[in-house]
Amino acid sequence: MAQLSDDCFTFGGPMMSVDEAVRLIASRVVAVGETETVALVDADGRILARDITAPLPLPPFTNSAVDGYALPGSDLPRENERAFPIEGRVAAGASPHTARPGYAVRIFTGAPMPGGTDTVFMQEDVHVDDNGHVVLPAGLKVGANVRPAGEDIAQGHLALKAGQRLRPQDIALAAAFGLTVLQVVRRIRVAVFSTGDELVSPGTPRAAAQLFDSNRFMLIAMLKRLGCEVSDLGILRDEREPLAQALKRVAGAHDLILTTGGVSTGEEDHVKAGVEAVGSLVLWRMAIKPGRPVAMGIIGGTPFIGLPGNPVASFVTFAHVVRPTVLALSGARPAPLVPIPVRAAFTHKKKSGRREYVRVTLRPASDGALEAVKFPREGAGLLSSLVDTDGLVELGENIAKVEPGDLVGFLGYADLL
Ligand code: AMP
Ligand code: MG
Q: Which is the closest atom of ligand 1 to the Cα of 263?
């Protein structure tokens, strides 16, 4: 486990901006550094641990980009069409073949270019005459319809960088190099607890004033999408000592401890005192809505994050605090959330000086542009507001008002993870 100092999340100011939080995490959290080898089919979403330089050029040999006829550039008709006798036939996968000058070679997509040829006529642009000769039009450029060896990637090129979160296309590239396994960072181990006397797990009886715990399942799903190995540790009661002991117990075996609820400053919010009993903690008052109180701490050298209990606040702060922490623990290259511009179809007033996230649905406007429609209600406890929308409109610290027609930045839910 990476060991962090007790004061590593200390922050001087009264309110922390989202960007400051992301920067502080990126600069303080230490990558676990341990790696493992996985088969390509298991590599999606994992963090590449080593640079990969191309062991061969791509494509590895010069080949035809189309079905047609191959010739040497020096034979191409210049002024008028010309008939060529056909000799040879090269399909994809065939061994290399040498062309005879004055002849056209029948060739198919992906087949190696016959020796002596460098240009391919598409079969759609030619016809075969009564003598069985192929009639080629004038004017084709030398080298047309050919994919030279290395045109995609040159041998020795730094093709995939360590820290890359592997996507299907990255895995395709590794396969194209003939690799069968990849060295990746081991999964980040995260312990997840909910806190609150009002919570019960689905599947257990619920008293009248209790709720089924929903955040824990949301957070576990989010962590799994980030490639984490999650320990689901259930619900902690609002009681300092057992809470403290439970957190302490799991610290050694995990890279991150995550809780939800109990981080406000009410009498029944015991996370702060609990963490302080076994480690150290700072309450970040983040300039973010929904969100605000987020706890960051260290228990036995292991980072601790306490997210707010309201489901929407928990969801939004996850993206800005947990996601960068998990990425930093895994040594991933920073992956800033980049909102895409859409048009607002709503009015919204906000306090300047803090970042706000508005839950929205996208719809095409009459001119084809996308516009964002705000969910009609605002409460941070409304799960329906996350379920029935497509993503979040990010309103920066300097914005005080949004009017219909304003360009605003949109983050789709899938992009938050
Ligand atoms: P807290 O941050 O503990 O004061 O909780 C704020 C609100 O979120 C309260 O209404 C809680 O009942 C609710 N809440 C806290 N934790 C969860 C959870 N795990 N699942 C659903 N709601 C929660
Ligand atoms: Mg609570």
A: 2
